[in-house]
Structure formats: C-alpha cells, structure tokens
Design brief:
single chain; Immunoglobulin-like; 3 domains; five-stranded mixed sheet; four-stranded antiparallel sheet; 17 strands; 21% helix; 27% strand; extended
Length: 350
C-alpha cells in the first residue's frame, strides 16, 4: 500500500535530496527574536531549539525555506541557544509532498480501479508507485530549472568565462530523460497519462433517449446474477452535481452472513431507519433489504445485517444507502450514507 511518506522518501532518493543533520549555536542579546540558521531548507517539524538548557521548540516559528527562526520572547542576554535538526539540499517536506500529490493526481486522472472507484494513494497498485515518483521527479526538476534559468554567463576581463547557464541546460536535459522514462513505463505497463483506453460504443434507445445497458459476458454454465458494466457517460457540457452524503463501501462474501456497525454523531433512536441494496442507484426494485437494529447501550450506533441467503442474491457489484425518517416529524426524511457493495463469489456451495 502506497503512502505519501513512502513516495516522498523515494522522490528524495531520485533527486539526491537527502536529509543531513546539523547543530548550530548562537547567543542571545536580550532583544533579538529572529535568528538565521545557516542551513536551509530545514525541517521545521523536527527542529529542536534549546535556550539556556530549556527546550523551547514548540514556541518558535520556523521559516523552512530561508532558515530563519523567530522566538515569541527574546532570549536573555548571553543565553546560549542551540539549534539541532535536519536540512535538505533543494526542497522542504511540504514541497516534496506537493510534487507527489500533483504527480499522483495527474497520473490517475480519468482512471478508476477494477471496481470503478477513483484511485487513491492507499489503492494505488505497487507497479505504479515508481512511475508516479518519476513523474514527481520531473515536476521537481522543472522547479529547479526555473531557478537556474536566472543564472547568466560571466565573462571576466582577463578572458576567463564561467558558463553558469550550463546548469539550466543540464537540468532541462535531465527533465527530458525523466519524461521519456515515465512515458516508456506507462506505455509498456498501460498506466498513467499514456494508458491506452478501450471504450465501448453505447447505443441509445430512440424511443426513450436512454442508454441500452451492457452486461459482462458470462460462461455458459455460470448461473450467477449478470453483472452490469458501469461505463463512464459523457456530460455533454454539463457538470456533476456535488453531494455532502458520505461514501462508505461494504465488502461481503457470497453465502456468508454479514453485519456492520455504523456510528452517527447524534441519537439514532429518534428516527426510523431503512437501508436497501440496489443493482444501480435509482433502481426501484431492491435486491435485498438490511435488517437495521439499534445497538444496546449505544444510542449513536446502528447494526446492519444480512442473512447468508440474502448475500447469495447479490451480484459482484451493487449499491446501498441508509435513510432515516423522523418519528416526530412526518415530513423529515434524510439519506445519511451511501456506497458500493462488493460481493466476492463463493467456491463452496454446500
């Protein structure tokens, strides 16, 4: 499972931007509150600051990019000040994480996992971690190239020339190499920005202006419920409506009893609850209905359960939600949670 910390560490390895420890000493004068640590960028979270033997790390403000440390109160005159921490060659931790996040967002744009869900860092396949790091490395080197572009060649009167612009050309050459490396990996693995997508032509019924549903092909002896293919639909220039309903996916095994406990930030006993599983959202006919029960001793929890017979009626992918009706107000009804239901087909029947 990929994590932001792990990908950020790998990006530093690719850039050669390793953390190095330092210790710097200064002396207070009773009036100065802003001190320059001659190491930057520094890691502000792990910086340790001692004044006259006392740890004041939590009371200082750190400018990670420049190395300046500002105290809330000026250290006393002649008080020894010790700064100890880690500094880097190019980027702060925040900048490194931003490069990784940007690379991941662009790498997974318009792509979903095998269940049609948006890809997250936690669900990113292991084979895609290195390409994301390579792409993040490209973005980071563009930043370095922008900084190097302001360097100009120096020519001394005695004929000595310092070609400072060569640094910019070298960085841009490395950017191109990294871009080609990312493109090659994506093309060969079929992932990322260079993934070749295969689309299904959709038919629209002329009488109803609705798409004709498509189902996954099945073996001739496969008696399970047909699995509907959820293909992305064009928006025709429209926009997706936002929703504030939390998404919570459920995983269950065909033929096994299932139960899950949900926690709410209010008293659930004041409402009447109902929860169903449908083949798709908007379908009028439910596949099964959950048994909803209040948890003894917990007024903020509900237990949803299905029998082993009910789980055999579910396809591999379906959808659920849970709705509440007020016991005191007949006009109040609210959906509090929704999501997908993933059912793993069983092997043992008896």
């Amino acid at each position: 499972m990929a994590t932001l910390t792990n990908l950020a560490s790998r990006l530093r390895d690719e850039l050669g931007d390793f953390g190095k420890s330092f210790v710097y000493q200064a002396t207070g004068d009773g009036s100065t509150v802003r001190f320059l640590v001659p190491y930057s960028p520094i890691d502000g979270e792990t910086l340790i600051v001692h004044v006259n033997g006392s740890d004041v790390s939590t009371t200082v403000t750190v400018e990670e990019e420049t190395g300046y440390v500002t105290f809330d109160t000026a250290p006393a005159s002649a008080a020894p000040i010790i700064f100890a921490g880690t500094y880097f060659r190019y980027f702060t931790n925040q900048e490194i994480c931003q490069f990784v996040n940007d690379a991941f967002t662009q790498h997974t744009a318009n792509h979903a996992d095998s269940f049609g869900r948006p890809v997250s860092l936690a669900s990113l396949p292991g084979v895609e971690e290195y390409p994301v790091v390579i792409y993040a490395c490209t973005l980071a080197m563009y930043t370095l190239a922008n900084d190097a572009s302001f360097d100009i060649d120096i020519t001394a009167p005695d004929g000595v020339m310092i070609p400072r612009s060569e640094r910019y050309r070298q960085v841009m050459n490395m950017v191109q190499e990294r871009k080609e490396q990312y493109k090659e990996l994506c093309s060969q693995l079929g992932i990322g920005l260079y993934k070749i997508d295969v689309f299904q032509l959709r038919r629209i019924a002329k009488s109803t202006n609705r798409y004709i549903p498509i189902y996954l092909p099945q073996e001739v002896d496969d008696t399970s419920m047909p699995q509907r293919v959820l293909l992305p639909m064009p928006t025709y220039g429209s926009q997706e409506f936002p929703t504030d309903i939390p998404n919570y996916d459920l995983n269950m095994y065909e033929g096994d009893s299932f139960e899950v406990t949900l926690t709410f930030p209010f008293d659930t006993t004041a409402y009447t609850w109902a929860s169903e599983i449908h083949l798709v959202f908007g379908d009028d006919i439910p596949l099964v209905a959950f048994t909803v029960e209040h948890v003894d001793g917990h007024t903020d929890q509900l237990k949803l359960s299905l029998t082993n017979i009910q789980t055999t009626l579910l396809p591999e992918l379906s959808f659920w939600d849970i709705r509440a009706k007020s016991s005191s107000d007949s006009t109040y009804e609210q959906t509090y949670m929704r999501g997908a239901v993933f059912t793993t087909p069983r092997a043992t029947v008896s």
